[in-house]
Amino acid sequence: MPTALDTFRAQREAADGVYARLTEVSQLLHQLRGQADALARNDKLRAVLQREQSWLDQAQRTIEEARRWRQVEMQRFWPGVWRRWALALVFALASAAAAGAGYAAVTRPWAAELTALRARMDIAEFVERRIVTMTPAERRQFDALMRGNAPPKR
Protein backbone atom coordinates (compact mmCIF):
# COMPACT_ATOMS: atom_id res chain seq x y z
CA MET A 1 0.00 0.00 0.00
CA PRO A 2 1.23 3.36 -0.88
CA THR A 3 1.72 5.65 1.98
CA ALA A 4 0.64 9.23 2.21
CA LEU A 5 4.19 10.36 1.54
CA ASP A 6 4.31 8.35 -1.69
CA THR A 7 1.00 9.82 -2.76
CA PHE A 8 2.22 13.30 -1.96
CA ARG A 9 5.39 12.74 -4.01
CA ALA A 10 3.36 11.42 -6.95
CA GLN A 11 1.12 14.48 -6.80
CA ARG A 12 4.14 16.75 -6.64
CA GLU A 13 5.71 15.07 -9.70
CA ALA A 14 2.41 15.40 -11.57
CA ALA A 15 2.17 19.06 -10.59
CA ASP A 16 5.76 19.63 -11.77
CA GLY A 17 4.89 17.97 -15.11
CA VAL A 18 1.83 20.18 -15.49
CA TYR A 19 3.94 23.23 -14.61
CA ALA A 20 6.55 22.27 -17.22
CA ARG A 21 3.85 21.87 -19.87
CA LEU A 22 2.29 25.23 -18.89
CA THR A 23 5.71 26.87 -19.19
CA GLU A 24 6.13 25.40 -22.71
CA VAL A 25 2.65 26.55 -23.74
CA SER A 26 3.36 30.01 -22.31
CA GLN A 27 6.58 30.26 -24.32
CA LEU A 28 4.78 29.13 -27.49
CA LEU A 29 2.05 31.71 -26.91
CA HIS A 30 4.69 34.40 -26.36
CA GLN A 31 6.35 33.44 -29.67
CA LEU A 32 2.99 33.42 -31.48
CA ARG A 33 2.12 36.83 -30.05
CA GLY A 34 5.46 38.18 -31.27
CA GLN A 35 4.86 36.77 -34.75
CA ALA A 36 1.31 38.15 -34.80
CA ASP A 37 2.59 41.58 -33.74
CA ALA A 38 5.23 41.39 -36.44
CA LEU A 39 2.58 40.56 -39.01
CA ALA A 40 0.34 43.33 -37.75
CA ARG A 41 3.17 45.84 -38.06
CA ASN A 42 4.01 44.71 -41.60
CA ASP A 43 3.10 47.65 -43.87
CA LYS A 44 2.94 45.56 -47.04
CA LEU A 45 0.51 43.14 -45.45
CA ARG A 46 -1.53 46.02 -44.08
CA ALA A 47 -1.67 47.62 -47.54
CA VAL A 48 -2.80 44.33 -49.09
CA LEU A 49 -5.50 43.94 -46.44
CA GLN A 50 -6.68 47.52 -47.00
CA ARG A 51 -6.84 46.93 -50.78
CA GLU A 52 -8.78 43.73 -50.24
CA GLN A 53 -11.15 45.58 -47.93
CA SER A 54 -11.68 48.32 -50.53
CA TRP A 55 -12.30 45.65 -53.19
CA LEU A 56 -14.83 43.95 -50.95
CA ASP A 57 -16.58 47.28 -50.31
CA GLN A 58 -16.64 48.03 -54.03
CA ALA A 59 -17.95 44.53 -54.81
CA GLN A 60 -20.69 44.98 -52.21
CA ARG A 61 -21.71 48.33 -53.73
CA THR A 62 -21.73 46.74 -57.20
CA ILE A 63 -23.93 43.88 -56.00
CA GLU A 64 -26.34 46.31 -54.32
CA GLU A 65 -26.53 48.39 -57.50
CA ALA A 66 -27.15 45.27 -59.59
CA ARG A 67 -29.96 44.29 -57.21
CA ARG A 68 -31.51 47.74 -57.53
CA TRP A 69 -31.29 47.54 -61.34
CA ARG A 70 -32.88 44.11 -61.27
CA GLN A 71 -35.76 45.40 -59.12
CA VAL A 72 -36.27 48.35 -61.47
CA GLU A 73 -36.16 45.98 -64.43
CA MET A 74 -38.79 43.72 -62.85
CA GLN A 75 -40.99 46.74 -62.09
CA ARG A 76 -40.76 47.84 -65.72
CA PHE A 77 -41.16 44.34 -67.18
CA TRP A 78 -44.80 43.53 -66.32
CA PRO A 79 -46.39 46.82 -67.46
CA GLY A 80 -44.69 46.39 -70.83
CA VAL A 81 -45.94 42.83 -71.09
CA TRP A 82 -49.48 43.90 -70.19
CA ARG A 83 -49.37 46.69 -72.76
CA ARG A 84 -48.21 44.31 -75.50
CA TRP A 85 -50.92 41.78 -74.68
CA ALA A 86 -53.56 44.51 -74.51
CA LEU A 87 -52.43 45.79 -77.91
CA ALA A 88 -52.55 42.26 -79.35
CA LEU A 89 -56.03 41.75 -77.89
CA VAL A 90 -57.27 45.05 -79.34
CA PHE A 91 -55.81 44.12 -82.73
CA ALA A 92 -57.42 40.66 -82.60
CA LEU A 93 -60.83 42.12 -81.68
CA ALA A 94 -60.56 44.81 -84.35
CA SER A 95 -59.60 42.29 -87.03
CA ALA A 96 -62.44 39.97 -85.97
CA ALA A 97 -64.90 42.87 -86.12
CA ALA A 98 -63.60 43.94 -89.54
CA ALA A 99 -63.85 40.37 -90.83
CA GLY A 100 -67.40 40.07 -89.50
CA ALA A 101 -68.41 43.39 -91.04
CA GLY A 102 -66.86 42.39 -94.35
CA TYR A 103 -68.63 39.05 -94.29
CA ALA A 104 -71.95 40.73 -93.51
CA ALA A 105 -71.45 43.28 -96.30
CA VAL A 106 -70.64 40.57 -98.82
CA THR A 107 -73.41 38.15 -97.84
CA ARG A 108 -76.24 40.67 -97.30
CA PRO A 109 -77.14 41.01 -101.04
CA TRP A 110 -77.03 37.26 -101.48
CA ALA A 111 -79.21 36.77 -98.44
CA ALA A 112 -81.86 39.09 -99.92
CA GLU A 113 -81.66 37.29 -103.25
CA LEU A 114 -81.92 33.90 -101.50
CA THR A 115 -84.98 35.08 -99.61
CA ALA A 116 -86.66 36.20 -102.85
CA LEU A 117 -85.73 32.93 -104.58
CA ARG A 118 -87.07 30.88 -101.67
CA ALA A 119 -90.41 32.72 -101.89
CA ARG A 120 -90.58 32.04 -105.65
CA MET A 121 -89.56 28.42 -105.07
CA ASP A 122 -92.29 28.02 -102.46
CA ILE A 123 -94.84 29.26 -105.01
CA ALA A 124 -93.41 26.94 -107.67
CA GLU A 125 -93.54 23.96 -105.29
CA PHE A 126 -97.13 24.81 -104.37
CA VAL A 127 -98.09 24.96 -108.06
CA GLU A 128 -96.26 21.70 -108.69
CA ARG A 129 -98.06 19.93 -105.84
CA ARG A 130 -101.38 21.31 -107.06
CA ILE A 131 -100.74 20.11 -110.62
CA VAL A 132 -99.76 16.64 -109.37
CA THR A 133 -102.92 16.37 -107.26
CA MET A 134 -105.35 17.64 -109.96
CA THR A 135 -108.20 15.52 -111.13
CA PRO A 136 -108.46 14.86 -114.90
CA ALA A 137 -111.20 17.49 -115.28
CA GLU A 138 -109.18 20.09 -113.44
CA ARG A 139 -106.22 19.15 -115.59
CA ARG A 140 -108.11 19.76 -118.84
CA GLN A 141 -109.34 23.10 -117.56
CA PHE A 142 -105.79 24.08 -116.54
CA ASP A 143 -104.36 23.10 -119.95
CA ALA A 144 -107.06 25.20 -121.69
CA LEU A 145 -106.19 28.19 -119.56
CA MET A 146 -102.51 27.77 -120.22
CA ARG A 147 -103.04 27.60 -124.02
CA GLY A 148 -105.08 30.80 -123.89
CA ASN A 149 -102.20 32.74 -122.31
CA ALA A 150 -99.67 31.39 -124.79
CA PRO A 151 -98.78 33.68 -127.69
CA PRO A 152 -100.26 32.64 -131.02
CA LYS A 153 -98.11 30.35 -133.15
CA ARG A 154 -97.32 31.45 -136.70
Helix count, DSSP H or I runs of 4 or more residues: 3
Report the end-to-end length measured between terminal Cα atoms. 171 Å
What profile does the largest beta sheet have?
A: none
Kindly state the percentage of residues in helix: over 70%
Structural class: mainly alpha
Q: Can you put this structure into words, describing what you see?
A:
The protein has 154 residues and is mainly α. It has one domain. Helix content is 92%, strand content 0%. It has three helices and no strands. It has helices spanning 4-40, 43-132, 136-149. The protein is rod-shaped and about 170 Å long. The termini are far apart.
Summary tags:
single chain; 154 residues; mainly alpha; 3 helices
Provide a concise account of the structure shown:
The chain is mainly alpha-helical and 154 residues long. The chain has helices at 4-40, 43-132, 136-149.
Chart the SSEs and their pairings.
Layout: H1 4-40, H2 43-132, H3 136-149
